[in-house]
Design a protein that fits this description.
Strand content: under 5%
Number of strands: 12
Biased composition (Basic residues): 1-10, 73-93
Mean pLDDT: 75
Distance between the termini: 132 Å
Region (Disordered): 1-254
Strand order of the largest sheet: 8-7-6-5-9
Radius of gyration: 47 Å
Helix content: 40-55%
GO molecular function, one term: zinc ion binding
Keywords: Metal-binding, Zinc, Zinc-finger
Structural class: mainly alpha
Organism: Equus asinus (Donkey)
Low-confidence stretches: 1-276, 560-583, 726-736, 873-893
Number of helices: 47
Amino acid sequence: MSAPCARRRPALAPAPSRAPGGPDSARRLTLVRRPPPSALAARAPGRPRLPTRAGRLAGLLAPPPDAAAGRLRGARGRGRGLRRRRCRCRRRLSQSVSPQQWRKEVSERSCSRRRRSLRPSACARGPARRLSTLAGRPGRPAAGWGASAAAACTPGPAPTCSPSPCWTAPLRRWRKSGRTSGWRSASSGSRSRCSAASSTGPSRGMSGRSACTPASSTGAAPAPARLAAPRGLRRPAEEGPPPPPGAAAPAGSAPGAAAVVASPGLGAGAGTAGGGGEGLPFRRGIRLLDSGSVENVLQVGFHLSGTVTEPATTSEPAMTYKVAISFDRCKITSVTCGCGNKDIFYCAHVVALSLYRIRKPDQVKLRLPISETLFQMNRDQLQKFIQYLITAHHTEVLPTAQKLADEILSSNSEINQVNGAPDPTAGASIDDENCWHLDEEQVKEQVKLFLSQGGYYGSGKQLNSMFAKVREMLRMRDSNGARMLTLITEQFMADPRLTLWRQQGTSMTDKCRQLWDELGALWVCIILNPHCKLEEKSCWLQKLQKWSDLDVCPLEDGNYGHELPNITNALPQNANHNPDSLSRPRRTVFTRAIEGRELHWQDSHLQRIISSDIYIAPACQGESERLLFNSQGQPLWLEHVPTACARVDALRSHGYPKEALRLTVAIINTLRLQQQRQLEIYKHQKKELLQRGTTTITNLEGWVGHPLDPIGCLFLTLTEACRLNDDGYLEVSDMNESRPPVYQHVPVAAGCPNSSESYLSLALEVALMGMGQQRVMPEGLYAQDKVCRNEEQLLSRLQELQLDDELVQTLQKQCILLLEGGPFSGLGEVIHRESVPMHTFAKYLFSALLPHDPDLSYKLALRAIRLPVLENSTSAGDTSHPHHMVSVVPSRYPRWFTLGHLESQQCELASTMLTAAKGDTLRLRTILEAIQKHIHSSSLIFKLAQDAFKIATPTDSTTDSTLLNVALELGLQVMRMTLSTLNWRRREMVRWLVTCATEVGVRALVSILQSWYTLFTPTEATSIVAATAVSHTTILRLSLDYPQREELASCARTLALQCAMKDPQSCALSALTLCEKDHIAFEAAYQIAIDAAAGGMTHSQLFTIARYMELRGYPLRAFKLASLAMSHLNLAYNQDTHPAINDVLWACALSHSLGKNELAALIPLVVKSVHCATVLSDILRRCTVTAPGLAGIPGRRSSGKLMSTDKAPLRQLLDATINAYINTTHSRLTHISPRHYGEFIEFLSKARETFLLPQDGHLQFAQFIDNLKQIYKGKKKLMLLVRERFG
């Protein structure tokens, strides 16, 4: 007898030797676990089938009846005795079969003999038995090996059996039966499910059937719209581990109980029935199948192959791809397609071939595993087979064939050290682990690609879709879920940006932080898997600890300071608890998952909670049992709230929605009891706390923004039980837009039978309790931003609920409790100074309650509008606090990074109240007082004022005077707040206030004019406020009569004079303008300007006033002001573009027009103040063109003669001009460059014009040129140009 053979993928092994020299003496290969041909007959349609937990793809393996019958007839001559002898021989030869496994298989063979009508024969060998079980049909017909496929069994109802007591054993270990898809108790060994039903064709889903008595449906393949899988194919539920202790049978334990969950794809949307997603591979595969593109389909053992043709398009020709699929126990274990698909889901060609096998089993050619076929050949046939194979593919296989031949002929080769040979069509051993195909390298490449893209190209959405895929796998109990998450985590840890961020000391982006948070939450679900094996859990924990120990591993809250409590620590039980003991030196995103190793599911109270809807308090309770139930007898779960919610999330994520729902109800009952106790404690301390006005009581660990998202988990668990559409978690419309979910009230099936509560009302209640919790603002930008973001997510989910009478009652009740909650509620009368504001939450409550209870809604919103951190600082405070709360003890004042966002939400709340209270004077006055007290941002108050103004002055209806007055009051407050501070919008605010006062009426304008000094600066008051108040537009807008106009004008003149006295530099001109119609006021304003001219007024201000006086017909006053301005001016030799040059020329022209005396008085000021030669020459030229005294002043006459430059007063100006040219020339020659030579020659030309004005000017200019030649003779090129121009 040959040596033992390893029971692995190799499917061929040496056969027992025959008589020497016999015809088969040359045969050396036989199948280790080859299926008898007759076993294939049992897989034909019409045969009874075994129930499989993953029976949705069972039809993939159902062979055509003709092919099975043919193989059956061809194998009948071998004899039953020989088959049994070879079976026993192979069992002994298999090295991987332990004695325990041997006894197990013997026992199972005995059992199957007693149930031949339902089970394959005991001697049905490995591949055949696996093939039949995989197909959902017994390996042997009831009528024996030779029975035909048609007469073996008539389809009919399946026998049933009662559930085994092992389903209710709370602490009993479970393990999986090797022969059936049911569950078996380790202690009793009895099968919990032993029934089956016949089936023809693929199995359908049977949701609603009993887990103990499944029945397979008959008929055609399932509807294509119901097929969905992570890679474009519908995937059956994994043959997962047993349920948690005390739980009911898992939903996936029957063929039809596996949930049909639509695949959300990777950012492509769900493939649910009635949904969109026409571009998904599954939809494309269906189109390829319907168009007849699948051909040459052949099934060899556990290997399916075929060709799929993509039809031609306008841009690409038709392409034919070869597709190969391997499967094992209703799972596709590997796929190969010629299209070269580079993604982590199945391509459309794999989908098309699989659906072809499911829908058209009669058209598929079925062959035995290739090792079985080889076994039937003699030596000549084998040689012919090999040579024909090599000839057909000699270019591909010849090198490999020769290499294998060399190794086989070598006695010492490795291939001869192992008995048997591999067979890719034989399938795996039944003891081997089987799981769905997952291309690990492709997953790694995809994650690496998305991470390298940062926040661009929707990579964040793609990674979130991969996380959603992991959750779907966990929900379907696919073992690839944890495997895929491990691959994702490895790529996340290998992200080079982690090292870069750590080296630079910068924090990661918000999108990356959110992805890491989701990663940590998923690992918590994996660790808390209620049916996870200890060795698997230990392996995961080792990996998590390894990742957590790395320096680049992100921290939980992104901050190295204050940390959150341990996941397994409940809140401290005494006031003297040291807060430092709650901290850990370093908490990473994986810390909570690692801490989950201390949690277990063996608690008997927990088991009873999640296993029964009618678990209530026993009649006779002990002292310890009383703490486990409330006064109505409903069970409580006294555990750290986020930790308890993590259990709920784990149950939800692993496909136990009912158990999660029961635990959720127990947690909510616990929160209710805690809320009642807090109210009782506050009643005893209310008087003392109100007197003090502050408290140190708060929660260090808030539920909103928590890494585990406890409130969101409870809310989703409850609302999912109330959804009307159950075809998938997400509904996708034809336009790929999310449809709002529709909920219905589902009564709570727990505890008190008289309870009228529904899961929907519980969802609303727990959301209100969580968001209304008084909690301290966490440290760090990301942690604070996460609080805001999580709150907005919860509110968006709440807004999807349609509030009916029951929900409104729940809302009113919870709001009253929150208002009366004291320091334990964020809406209580006394809260901690650093408590998280409730503005966004209160805005939702106000809008929801307003139609039903206006008084309560306004009371709640007015309570929530406060922002304690910006108000009076807290005093020492009280250090006493209830036993179940944490005291914020260190008086820390962290930076509130999100303060701007919080203030904007505060403004939104106030604006919502103002809009709702339109027309209600009393409420508007109360809201106004609250805004003035609690809102501290001038910009936000101004925004509120603008909003109120818009609401009060609609274009299509009358003005609301009450709300308009509120807008004016808010505007006045803004003016007072920004009067002494810098605000870039100040000018806009002033203009808006005048507009608002104009809308209110003339009395409002008079009021702001009279009290201007408390609202405006002098410049604003004169240039904007007063000017607008007396403008023609305002008079027409208000339809003012003469007395009203005079009143406004008088107030404006008074304001102008007051402003001019206070700030003459800025307000003198505006005061003159406002007072020009009143002589007395005008003279007073002019005198103020003259008095201020000797002080701090600049030459530009004086020139401006002087020009105004000339314009108004006061030239002498203008000359006086211009002379004062000239005395303040200093114009250097090189300032030939100074803005004051025009003012100087205007002043000289004014003095020249007034007469010779005025010009003579001004010229000395000009000579003293102006040193620019070009400006002086321009003034000199203008004065010699016309005669002075042409202004036409009464009492003066012009001489009509031109003034000479050789006589006063122009002689002084001429000398000053020549000296200026000489000085400027020397200054320019000091640092002149060759590129400026041309400009300098032009400058000398202008100077010569001035030199030539006096009689001896040409001599002066010639002497000047000679001096230049002598002094600057080193500048030869320049002097050459001077000689060429001037001699």
